[in-house]
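ARCHIVE CARD
CATEGORY: sequence design from structure
SOURCE FIELD: tokenized fold
FIELD CONTENT:
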């Protein structure tokens, strides 16, 4: 059947855990042996794989009736050239939505939950069955969009990395990251486990974990009654970010006062690497897609000028 329009739809998909195991162990039988040898339930991997691949087939069937469909695996997204008029459908977990948004330039993103019984899907408000009605509305401009603020890290050599949830700046392994940090006119030498810079969209993720731990430790040290701490939660379109330093170590050569703060366009965060090697900046948990951040490199972090657009 010919599609109803010539509009291009880019469907973003991912490998399942079972796909990754088979790639690692060559066959499903060998993957089963490995998992069951460890006492785990291999059938859970199979069920997840079956649900996801059925959802991919069903999604393609819906979309092929509506426009021209191109399927792109998540591993190719960083180098894929999206057209200005493309409509992007992401079928996967929340992280796949975040890791797609940062490579787009105003294209609308439809987050589809392939397995609601397994994934909560904060960024996946739609089901496969919604696409038949939803996509034509997006084509006509008849759907509201939620604007998402991104973070931007720019190195002194011109390299740039965007983040939808958060940036990590530090050492690649479990060694201390050493750097000079500057914010709002203050400077400090740091030795820490790295710096997290969070957007409003990412405030309920890594940022929330760090804040929860820090406040709970402080309450325990002060012998205060345990309670649910009031955490900074800010909207996904906020024009600011927050930074948090992980495990800052005070010593004769490093300080631990400049460990939390707001980042704006006029008050950027500046980090100068003092690591001979293993320094990195990565975004949204994607360690492979990173910038090297070693001695002599300086990173300027602020809210990005470009925005992400989620269909709601």
């Amino acid at each position: 059947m010919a599609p109803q329009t010539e509009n291009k739809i880019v469907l973003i998909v991912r490998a399942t855990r079972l796909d990754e195991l088979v790639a690692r162990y060559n066959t499903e039988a060998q993957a089963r042996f490995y998992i069951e040898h460890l006492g785990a339930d291999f059938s859970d991997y199979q069920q997840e794989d079956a649900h996801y691949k059925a959802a991919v087939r069903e999604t393609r069937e819906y979309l092929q009736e509506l426009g021209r469909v191109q399927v792109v695996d998540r591993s190719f997204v960083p180098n894929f050239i999206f057209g200005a008029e493309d409509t992007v459908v992401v079928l996967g977990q929340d992280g796949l939505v975040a890791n797609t948004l940062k490579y787009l330039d105003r294209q609308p993103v439809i987050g589809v939950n392939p397995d609601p019984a397994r994934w909560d899907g904060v960024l996946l408000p739609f089901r496969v069955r919604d696409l038949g009605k939803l996509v034509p509305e997006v084509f006509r401009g008849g759907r509201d969009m939620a604007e998402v603020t991104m973070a931007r890290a720019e190195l002194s050599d011109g390299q740039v990395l965007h983040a939808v949830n958060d940036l990590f700046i530090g050492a690649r392994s479990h060694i201390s990251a050493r750097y000079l940090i500057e914010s709002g006119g203050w400077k400090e030498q740091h030795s820490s486990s790295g710096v997290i810079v969070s957007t409003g969209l990412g405030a309920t993720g890594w940022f929330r974990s760090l804040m929860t731990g820090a406040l709970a430790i402080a309450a325990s040290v002060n012998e205060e009654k345990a309670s649910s701490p009031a955490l900074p939660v800010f909207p996904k379109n906020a024009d600011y970010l927050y930074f948090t330093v992980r495990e800052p170590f005070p010593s004769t050569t490093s300080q631990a006062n400049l460990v939390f703060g707001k980042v704006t366009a006029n008050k950027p965060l500046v980090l100068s690497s003092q690591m001979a090697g293993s320094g990195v900046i990565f975004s949204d948990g994607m360690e492979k897609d990173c910038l090297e951040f070693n001695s002599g490199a300086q990173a300027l972090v602020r809210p990005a000028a470009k925005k992400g657009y989620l269909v709601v």
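CARD ANNOTATION: The chain has a mean pLDDT of 93. Residues 42-64 form the longest helix (23 residues).
SHELF: design records, drawer C
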